[in-house]
Amino acid sequence: MIVSFIKFALQRCLPATALQSLRAAFHRWRDRVALRRSTAYDHRRFADGAGLFRAETHAPSIEASLIKAYHRIEKGLALREPRPGFGRDAVEAVLLDAQRLLACLGPQRSVTRALAALDEYVHFHLVHGVDLAWLLPRLTALRQAQGRSAIAGEGGIVLVERARIHAAARLDLADFFARRHSIRQFSAEPVAAVLVAQAVVMAQKTPSVCNRESGMVHAAFEPGIKERLLALQNGNRRFGEQAGCVLVVTSRLDTFLSVGERYQGWIDGGMFAMSLVYALHSLGLGSCCLNWSVEPEADIALRRVGGIPDDQLVIMLLAVGHLPERLRVAQSPRRPLDDVLKIL
Ligand SMILES: Cc1cc2nc3c(=O)[nH]c(=O)nc-3n(C[C@H](O)[C@H](O)[C@H](O)COP(=O)(O)O)c2cc1C
Predict the structure, then answer these.
(1) Cβ of residue 291 lying under 6 Å from some atom of ligand 1
(2) Are 74 and 155 in contact (CB under 8 A)?
(3) For FRET with 43, which of 115, 204, 285, 328 sits at 20 to 30 Å CA-CA?
């Protein structure tokens, strides 16, 4: 009431240009306040959701710390000439995290993988005649506590051949990329959950920081849930409702362990989402990324509808569906190469 009165009075009293400047100044002030609120919201989510302040007590964060530690060993062993004696601090971290995890959850797949990395570490050092008296009894104790020996193919390193990599990579990816479009018309054919699952498995091969795999997908096939999710997003009008399935791509904050990793969720989650888009494309499904560039209220509402935990970042939504026989797509021309590639 008061706001309407002030608006009315200003419109009557001020010339149009002054009114415009006033409106612009108001919008700038409003955006500054919104930015401060939204940044505080992001800060709180990271502080509470990341493993930063609960790396020793929260089981998923202990596991992330374990993966990070045993991956340091894997990385060391994957170098051209690993240095005998390397990574003792990483081994100590693996032993500590594995014990913590076993104490929290009992035998775990990640401990099996850690044991595989440690076995490779031991093998490398035995071949190089390095004494591991400090490690061997503790490794035996860990193996006993885990109750399973390392499973072949689960962790450690593996020898691969260039010819095999090149043979598998010999695809016409330029055409594959060029023929992917954001799809804004879908056919009525339902999307099989098994296809989405297949795409997610493919997307899991996306690189992630220390292989901690923060990416997750929440898939909605049920019309009511799809509709409620799409209603919260501003870029799907007049086509979202045709999608056979709506995906919410998230990134698990509890896999991030330091202040420096405060943006890692956006990076790993974004890369995971990109792989997912290409995986869906390879399986014959069309998709359209749907931005999640929102302020706290919308984010909270989406979490409520999708049951998305507080310790996950929402990266984007994806509308997914089968393609009609013929359809129009936006050309979306790209910048010239010179604008994008700078040789240093
Ligand atoms: C993070 C992200 C958010 C997007 N959000 C929307 C959206 O809300 N609505 C929409 O129609 N398209 C959206 N897009 C699709 C872009 O408009 C599209 O990718 C771009 O124009 C390039 O076209 P192409 O995907 O067909 O190559 C989004 C894309 C990305 C990567």
Answers:
(1) yes
(2) yes
(3) 204
Could you give the percent of the chain with pLDDT greater than 90? 89
**Ligand 1 binding pocket includes 235 (Cβ within 6 Å):** yes
Helix (H) or strand (E) holding 193: helix 193-203
For position 151, what pLDDT does the model report? 65
Q: Determine if ligand 1 sits within 6 Å of the CB of residue 330.
A: yes
Strands (E) in the chain, as ranges, are 215-220, 245-252, 285-291, 312-322
* Pocket residue to mutate for ligand 1, from 266, 291, 315, most atoms within 8 A of Cβ: 291
Segment 34-45, tens digit of pLDDT: 999 999 999 999
Token pair belonging to 5: 């009165």
Q: Exposed (0-12), middle (13-18) or buried (19+): which is 152, by Cβ within 10 Å?
A: exposed
What is the secondary structure of 106-165 as a DSSP string?
A: SS-HHHHHHHHHHHHHHHHHHHTT---TTTHHHHHHHHHHHTSPPPTTSSS-----HHHH
Distance CA(165)–CA(279), nearest Å, equals 19
